Amino acid sequence: MADKLVYQPEHFINRELSWLEFNARVLEEAQDASNPLLERVKFLSIFSSNLDEFFMVRVAGLREQAFGGVAPQDIAADGLDALTQLQRISQRTRELVEQQYRCWNKAVRPALAENGIHILEHCDFDKPQRKTIDEFFRQRAFPILTPMAIDPSHPSPRFHNRGLYLAALLHRTSGLGPPDLFAVVQLPGVLPRFIDVGGPNENKFVLLEDIIACKLPELFGGYESVHHATFRLTRDMDVDLLEQESDDMLRAIESRLRARQHSEAVRLEVHKEMSRDLLDMLVGEEQLQENYFIEGEKYSEVYRVDGMLDLTALAELARLPGKDALRDPPFTPRQALSLLRGDSLFAEIADRDVLLHHPFDSFDPVVDFIQSAAEDPHVLAIKQTLYRTSGDSPIVKALMLAAENGKHVTALVELKARFDEANNISWSRQMERAGVHVVYGFMDLKTHCKLAMVVRQEGPKVRRYVHLGTGNYNPATARLYTDLALFTSNKLIADDCTALFNFLTGYSQGHEWKKLVVAPQDLHQRTVDLINEQTQRAREGKAARIFAKLNALVDSETIEALYGASQAGVPVDLVIRGICCLRPDLPGISDNIRVRSIVDRFLEHSRVMVFGEGNKAQVYLSSADWMPRNFERRVEVMFPIEAPEPRRRIIEEIIPAYLQDNTRARVLMSDGTYVRASAWHDEPEHRAQRDLLPTAPTSVAAKPVVATPLNGQSSDGDLAAKIKAAAKSH
């Protein structure tokens, strides 16, 4: 047997740079004039929101490694050190932000004006608008605003993470105080960013910061404004509880949340016209890097932008009422058969496994599953994991009702769900007061699996009903994210779920898993084994194939197993929404691997894996991506799809839709760049999310798509050849 190939750093793509390319694909949707206008506004907002989280977590971690001597949690296979990554992130981020503001200033904002949505500048105010602005300031803004001077007797305030501030250089014209003064005003988050100054049936807005800038002399009586500019800080907001000692996880997390407010700054955004004096004050106060050189390249944590700061606020405009013509057309999700027939949901699950594909299939059956259990006198117990849920969750309310109705209710709430910690603490306390037995999982592991189990007395027997999913129990995001879920009463799966809940609540171990594959126990090894099984089949001349749809592919051991499968001749098709550290189409290494990413109306969130072909294919869904954190530091579940109809639907309808997409798919090249897929010659256009939409509100069967063989070949030629040709044409 030939020696095992030793992979080099150049065989892998850097995780952080790959994520930036994902966000670049989000930005492309904003730049795409074929998208409805307010959808483009939405994508501009999402791009900024994504970038905020990236800096708060990923860049913050790299900064700790580079300047604080903190060891990385995972060793990157690409070999780039923290400083080099920071420099390249800074460079690429500046390019993308420049594109974002060009899109907003030159394309989207003018298009909004053409469609009657105006954002007025200072000089655009007429007399009625000035009156509206004056009334708004006096009645709503002035009582809230706090003018803050900065001098030896008024030290600089602690600027909040992602808070928007107006900095000003003021000159005294009368009264007490220094002749020249630095000052800041925070724009309150309780006020809208876009202030409506239009008349009836008009959409005319003024930015909140422009109003406050006009009123600086009123806020700082006796001073006139010499210069002003907006700024915004991003801080390290990652919560690391792995090394904390506490006998009460809830209190430990509450303490850490308070500590977040005093964390280090990692990015300063300022308006491009901010004066040097104001900027020096902010950089010095926050101890930011502005002129740091890495291998001769300048690295700076200061970002000057050409326009309004914090484009996440554009979400306000995207939600404007009465503008449906500027949005994607609405649709009604398919309802489950049980709701159409009016039959018992439990009776249907007892009869057969049910697959749901959200948002194309309604999330109502999931809510109904818990609500029905809460009210059903035959239900004895409900057990459920909660990672993220909506602010007014009907599922949480149903769990509380079930407890009040005397049922045994257990909720495993993951308090460490990033940026949802405070929300989950609130829900936990409400559920505890209602009598729900609330468990917080493990200190050193996040519980990320999504499962619910209902225990029901049916005559002399007790039957367990299980829901397993790839997404959260959140009705709001279920209309925005694509996810897959399974309802089943399969006894072996129910046995495994019972054992998993016992592990989560009481450390109970020793169960021999029949159907579920669980992290951190064996998901990593089982994933590698499933890949290697296909590799061995190919070496023996048998049919083999691998398909995986994931949010991220980072784990180097899994990537190396995929490289080995490619070298054995296994066709590998990957649909990776975000980070992908694997390089496809490397000669002799990954020739048989194709990677595509789909960014469209809905956030692709489902995880689907198929190993093998035909009747021998093993089909799985999972809560986990192929990342070290999912394999090693989270409780995750991968579960099989074995019933004929759910299996057929995944293999014949859902997967082909994603492999055929030549409208919103981007194909990963070996150099780490992405090329947008397009129809080949006389091929019809395919758009996976559009093709999977229900055709009518009462549709039961999934809309069929033209079948594409799972090896990625199409009827008129080799897909890989098309991709290479498309790349050359670009």
List segments where confidence is low: pLDDT < 50 over at least 5 consecutive residues: 241-247, 696-720, 722-730
CATH superfamily caption of the largest domain: Polyphosphate kinase middle domain
The structural class is: alpha/beta
Which fold name fills CATH's third level, the topology of the largest domain? polyphosphate kinase like
CATH class call of the largest domain: Alpha Beta
If classified by CATH, what would the architecture of the largest domain be?
2-Layer Sandwich
Mean pLDDT: 88
Largest sheet: 10 strands, mixed
Q: What spatial form do the alpha-carbon principal axes imply?
A: globular
How would you concisely characterize the structure shown here?
This protein is of the alpha/beta class and 730 residues long. Strands 16, 20, 21, 22, 23, 25, 26, 27, 28 and 29 form a ten-stranded mixed beta sheet that branches.
Folded structure, characterized:
By secondary structure, the chain is an alpha/beta fold. The chain is built from 21 helices and 29 strands. It folds into 3 domains: 9-326, polyphosphate kinase like; 344-509, 2-Layer Sandwich (Endonuclease, Chain A), CATH 3.30.870; 518-729, Endonuclease, Chain A. The strands form 5 sheets. Strands 16, 20, 21, 22, 23, 25, 26, 27, 28 and 29 form a 10-stranded mixed β-sheet that branches. Strands 12, 13, 14, 15, 17, 18, 19 and 24 form an 8-stranded mixed β-sheet that branches. The model is unreliable at 241-247, 696-720 and 722-730 (pLDDT under 50).
